[in-house]
């Protein structure tokens, strides 16, 4: 297995010592991307927010700074990530402002109509059944709630060589701009917005329930 393949596999489900290094790197490298995406929505101070694929927990921590009178939940299907994200947010968990759970987007362990916002930062590529998973996210959103997808990669000719190398070395799926928008439409999301930062190959979608 190549070094790139090993790293991409850890991006999908970080585990062990190597996964810890990858998660710590993602906490840093995704910070600007995440901020760019979160600027597209207005998270109110009393919002209830879910971060799917919370990794090392920095995005959860950032969401608490926005929803400072609300609650933020992070989930990840890596038990190691749950532990690392919990360590990163230890004080906030003790205060009852943050909850970290081991769970998959395949079946979210929450009742219907629970969250004002759901975020997915750099995780969509690895969702196993993307159309059904997007519907599952909609289930746990409140009416008028928003789903924010933030990716640093989309299918674009300017990044074709790099993206094809990623695909060759992993089972990640890199979507075109229209593909994810069409999935959101098919799932019944409203007022879908899409923005790109072409020079970085970044893309953000916001869909409303």
TrEMBL record:
Group of enzyme by EC: transferase
Record-linked Pfam families: Methyltransf_11
Sorted UniProt keywords: Methyltransferase, Transferase
The EC number(s) this enzyme carries: 2.1.1.163
Origin superkingdom: Bacteria
Protein name, per record: 2-methoxy-6-polyprenyl-1,4-benzoquinol methylase, mitochondrial
Keyword presence, Methyltransferase: yes
GO biological process: methylation
Keyword Transferase carried by entry: yes
InterPro entries: Methyltransf_11, SAM-dependent_MTases_sf
GO molecular function annotation: demethylmenaquinone methyltransferase activity; S-adenosylmethionine-dependent methyltransferase activity
Gene3D superfamilies named among the record's database cross-references: Vaccinia Virus protein VP39
